[in-house]
Write a structure and sequence with these properties.
The chain is an alpha+beta fold and about 210 residues long. Helices cover about 30% and strands about 30% of the residues. It has a six-stranded antiparallel sheet with strand order 2-1-3-6-4-5.
Length: about 210
């Protein structure tokens, strides 16, 4: 996995990657050719996250999938924009009617390193991957992106216990189990764009298609 920082990638690139995710969805729904990416390419692990706003201004997760191994950004963002929208098994596929209520976040990941123990990471700075075995010796694994813990208001142990559950472990969580975890920490660069901002920028750049 990549240990170097995406130094050639700017905040504007990541914001444009978010807009490109909307391009992917609208092209699919409207059956139009997908525009070419307008952000720098490279190879990094990445995740695409879709949230949906309700009428009260609250947002709810509608999909989040990515890849923890380096992947070409142009192909990777295009792939996971669709996969996270339509193939996240936790949710029903996103519909065309939902698009105006969506917000997209793209996170490029870097600086993967082994942690000394399960609490050797910083809230708000690091994402983490945990690997451990269940009571039968079967391997389990799960990850949280760098912003998840702080957004949920968790402490470190609470976050790790939630991650253990996310990995599929249903037994009692003991200190011995926590100590057995092999944790990899990483960092990320994230941008978020909602549909209104996306459409406004595409109109301003004269890139909005009539079919959309």
């Amino acid at each position: 996995m990549s240990k170097h920082e995406p130094s050639n990638i700017t905040d504007k690139d990541i914001e444009e990657a978010c807009r490109f995710c909307f391009d992917v969805l609208l092209s699919r729904f409207c059956r139009t050719p997908c525009p070419l990416p307008r952000f720098r390419n490279g190879e990094f692990p990445l995740f695409v996250t879709w949230n949906k706003f309700d009428g009260k201004g609250n947002s709810n997760l509608r999909g989040c999938i990515g890849n923890l191994s380096p992947i070409g950004l142009h192909d990777g963002v295009k792939k996971y924009a669709a996969v996270s929208a339509f193939e996240d098994r936790r949710f029903s596929p996103i519909s065309a009617d939902e698009v105006p209520m969506l917000e997209c976040s793209v996170t490029f990941l870097s600086n993967f390193e082994e942690a000394a123990n399960y609490v050797d990471w910083e809230i708000g700075k690091h994402g983490m991957i945990i690997n451990f075995s269940d009571d039968r010796g079967s391997p389990l694994s799960a990850t949280y992106l760098p912003y998840v813990c702080s957004e949920q208001g968790w402490g470190k142990e609470e976050c790790i216990d939630s991650l253990i559950r996310k990995a599929g472990y249903r037994g009692s969580i003991s200190q011995r189990l926590r100590n057995s975890i092999k944790l990899t920490r990483y960092q990320g660069c994230k941008a978020t764009v909602d549909f209104a901002a996306y459409r406004g920028q595409r109109v301003a750049d004269r890139l909005w298609l009539e079919a959309w």
